Amino acid sequence: MKSISVIGVGKLGLCFGLNLEKAGYRVDGYDINKEYLTKLRNKTFISSEPGVTDLLKNSKNLYLHDNLENVLENNVIFVVVHTPSLPNGKYDHQYIEGLKEKLISLGVQKYTKHLVINCTTFPGYCDELQKDLEDYNYTVSYNPEFIAQGTILKDQVNADMVLIGEANSHVGNVIQNIYIDHCTSNPRICRMSRISAEITKLSLNCFLTTKISFANMIGDISDKVGGEKDKILEAIGSDSRIGNKFLKWGYGYGGPCFPRDNRALNIFAEENSIDAQISRATDKMNDLHLTYQVEEFMKNNPDKEKPIVFDYVTYKPQSTILEESQQLKFALTLQKLGYNVIVNERDSVNDELNKVGIKFKSNE
Predict the structure, then answer these.
(1) What is the tens place of the pLDDT at every residue in 107-166?
(2) In angstroms, rounded to a whole number, what is the distance separating the alpha carbons of residues 37 and 17?
(3) CA–CA separation, 305 and 180 (whole Å)
(4) Which of 135, 151, 221, 284 has the most crowded Cβ, counting Cβ within 10 A?
(5) Is 76 exposed, middle or buried (0-12, 13-18, 19+ CB in 10 A)?
(6) At what angle do helices 194-225 and 125-133 cross, to 10 degrees?
């Protein structure tokens, strides 16, 4: 049985490990949260992500460790740790840096270990990481995921494209074969340098944000003059050069990935003397769209006493994430304008709203 290690078995890492285990791999997972690891070992952990709880209960070759040396017994090690955004818009690499220091403290490895960074990093970071670790017999490759909250397991095995920023051609072959083993979609494999892959990851998400903002802009224009926005956008998307995916009028983009990747690409461009006006315009249009949505709503709903019911205020229906949710901003704006806003959310989401001091009425 082929073995793979996963460092960081949080939401994404656990899903990745379970999909690999399902495909026939022995997976050694590492995490610093011992209480969480106990739940995973006992298979008592309940996940909000669809399918995870069942896969965990049925897993037979998933092994969980709190000792880093255990996962270094395997030659291929995926790193799926958190890289949150810093106030300046860049990514916080502190958890990867912490891992790096632990690896260095363990000394030079007898056999070459292939680290595969699976989380989003700022362009150029993985090259620097390679420089820091090459004397200790590590290679560093970059292999980010393109998934959506609520469909992580499905997205991982049904990828359209697998992006590999390879340390060298041998490691690229190894990573490619892992995806061939566990993907059911026959994805296009795109192999390139580490920094090229880092730029690609940001650029792909930024293109999607641009497409979303464009669709909402066209819809807002249409609403102003009485046009049929849905038919207009459907016609535009019927051109094969454009396509209908993400070309719908609706809420602006939000959540934990799109906004921050858009900002990070703009910062990277500025640091390299490129004026990335499209990235800034996309963000500005996203903000303006909320303003136009509210104006259109007020025009069509003058009665502020009538209940306005929201079934969800997370950034998408399948998720429990409130981060940069345009739905939440819309509901809060209407509430501040005096509308009778009612939110019927899940208990877990209500708990998060209470933590940040947000109160809505409920039908319950």
Answers:
(1) 999 999 999 999 999 999 999 999 999 999 999 999 999 998 889 999 999 999 999 999
(2) 14
(3) 57
(4) 151
(5) buried
(6) 160
Predicted pLDDT of residue 363: 56
Beta bridge partners of 308: 341
The DSSP output letter for 253 is: P
Domain ranges (residues) in the chain: 3-192, 195-293, 301-364
Which class is domain 195-293? mainly alpha
What distance in Å separates the CA atoms of residue 136 and residue 261, rounded to the nearest whole number? 31
How far is Cα 120 from Cα 118, in angstroms, rounded to an integer?
7
Number of H helices, E strands in the chain: 14, 10
User: Is 60 exceeded by the pLDDT of residue 18?
Assistant: yes
How far is CA 80 from its chain centroid? Answer: 12
How far is it, in rounded angstroms, from Cα 9 to Cα 63?
11
Please count the other Cβ atoms lying within 10 Å of the Cβ belonging to residue 238: 11
Q: Report whether 153 contacts 51 (CB < 8 A).
A: yes
In three-state secondary structure terms, 142 is strand
- Which residues lie across from 162 on neighbouring strands? 189
* One-letter amino acid for residue 336 of the chain: K
In the predicted model, what is the mean pLDDT of the chain?
Answer: 95
CATH class of 3-192: alpha beta
CA–CA gap between residue 46 and residue 52 (Å, rounded): 8
Predicted local distance difference test score (pLDDT) of residue 15: 97
| Integer Cα distance of 215 and 232 in angstroms | 10
Separation between Cα atoms, residue 139 and residue 256, nearest integer Å = 29
Rg of the chain taking only CA atoms, in angstroms: 22
Q: Which pLDDT score, from 0 to 100, does residue 90 have? A: 94
Q: What is the pLDDT of residues 245-280, one digit of tens each?
A: 999 999 999 998 999 999 999 999 999 999 999 999
H or E stretch covering 84: none
Instruction: For residue 41, count other CB atoms closer than 10 A to its CB.
Output: 13
